[in-house]
From TrEMBL:
First and last residue of the signal peptide: 1-22
Domain (FAD-binding): residue spans on this chain: 138-378
GO MF, one example: FAD binding
Domain of life: Eukaryota
UniProt-recorded name of the protein: Putative zeaxanthin epoxidase, chloroplastic
Pfam family, one: FAD_binding_3
Organism: Microthyrium microscopicum
Length: 400
């Protein structure tokens, strides 16, 4: 549909949700401008591998062109099985737990999403695919710290005090530290620090040969500091490709994994050495992952979560809204966060497409629908995290 919008839709942040929204606007010929604080897409680590749910895949497919969707689908890895294969990290024995349960209630967690397969993709690959075609519309090294609403639009305000050209609307998609989210919600949108930390990294496929195909969760309850676990995805189709590395994610209860000087930006060998220390007495089929890891890819991550009761309501500002982690931060339990974020992009993009650009009422319609599925997702993610990580947060917990 041709756009009747002359001024662009402004987007803060160039993460997954922002870039997928940009793809939707591009297909609808609606002008947009993205502002990203990093200097380039490769400025920092891209994080761990993402599992895509049926809802997440449906959202992405609804946005991308048939050609771009096929390229995306071909890039995704497909793993057999229906859920986690759980084992004791020290003995390597099956602990008889097929899945971690639904919110700790003991029901198996089915991870399949299409054609009986578990579908996943590296965050960096996903981001690169969503960026394709949008590169001319991204201004790097532009950190949005606020906005001002004008009589006929909105301007983004940057860290150096300068302002953008006027846009029709501003979408805050700059993650858990979003300044747009804090301003538009008058502080109601909060992201809590659960206190739990993790390490993610990569290793060559040869390190996974003794595990076999599947999504594996290994738990070490013998660690004197607290429970430690690792999750990884072994795809048989890629096992013999020397150019492919599989990702792994290590997590633990609050206080167990701590980066040096509490510096979450540390990457490479310092993070790798800590991961190796925890895996030192693990079974050889797991220990090999850490012995052979690509040390420069190791990085820490902080486990955060929005209010488990759901996405709060705030006074709607027609010219400003938020998507993805800026609206609803989630723990990594169940891989729900990214799938909910792309649903935001698809929903808001569809509303723009149907209207041919910005129209008053779009923001309220988006936020009303988003709150329903996102609140359910946050609660589900938090429920699983209480079982997996032993976290507990409330309104008095520390915020990021």
């Amino acid at each position: 549909m041709a756009s009747n919008t002359k001024k662009p839709i402004l987007i803060a942040g160039a993460g997954l949700a922002s870039l997928l929204l940009a793809q939707s606007l591009r297909r609808s010929s609606i002008p947009f401008q993205i502002f990203e604080r990093d200097a380039s897409i490769s400025f920092r680590g891209q994080g761990y591998r993402l599992r895509l749910s049926s809802e997440g895949l449906d959202a992405i497919e609804s946005v991308l062109s048939p050609e771009d969707w096929q390229k995306f689908w071909d890039t995704c890895g497909k793993t057999g099985g229906s859920g986690f294969g759980s084992m004791d990290a020290v003995t390597g024995e099956d602990i008889g737990e097929k899945g971690t349960g639904d919110e700790g209630k003991g029901r198996p967690l089915d991870l399949t999403s299409r054609k009986g397969k578990i579908v996943g993709i590296a965050r960096g690959e996903m981001r690169q695919l969503f960026l394709s075609g949008c590169e001319p519309h991204v201004k790097w090294s532009h950190q949005v710290t606020g906005y001002e609403v004008t009589s006929s639009g909105v301007r983004a305000i940057f860290k150096d005090g300068s302002k953008s050209d006027e846009g029709e609307m501003l979408i805050g998609g700059e993650g858990i530290y979003s300044k747009v989210a804090k301003q538009v919600s008058d502080g109601k949108l909060k992201v809590y620090d659960t206190g739990a930390r993790g390490i993610h990294g990569q290793a060559p496929t040869t390190a996974f040969k003794d595990l076999g195909e599947g999504v594996w969760r290994a738990v070490d309850e013998s660690n004197p500091s607290g429970k430690v676990f690792v999750i990884t995805n072994v795809r048989a189709k890629d096992m013999d490709n020397p150019n492919i590395e599989f990702g792994w994610t290590m997590g633990a209860q609050p206080g167990v994994i701590e980066p040096p000087n509490n510096d979450m930006a540390i990457i490479g060998r310092p993070a790798a050495e800590i991961a190796k220390k925890f895996a030192a007495n693990w079974h050889p089929k797991l220990k090999a992952i850490f012995d052979q890891m690509n040390e420069k890819e190791a990085a820490f991550w902080k486990i955060t979560c929005s209010t488990p009761s759901g996405v709060p309501e705030w006074k709607t500002e027609p010219r400003v809204t938020v998507i993805g982690d800026a609206a609803h931060s989630m723990t990594p339990a169940g891989g729900i966060g990214a799938n909910t974020a792309v649903r935001d992009s698809a929903l808001l993009g569809r509303l723009f497409a149907e209207a041919g650009g910005y129209q008053e009422g779009i923001t309220a319609a988006y936020e009303k629908e988003m709150r329903v599925y996102a609140s359910e997702a946050v609660g589900h993610s938090y429920g699983m995290a209480t079982k997996q990580f032993g976290v507990k947060i409330d309104e008095n917990s520390a915020v990021v």
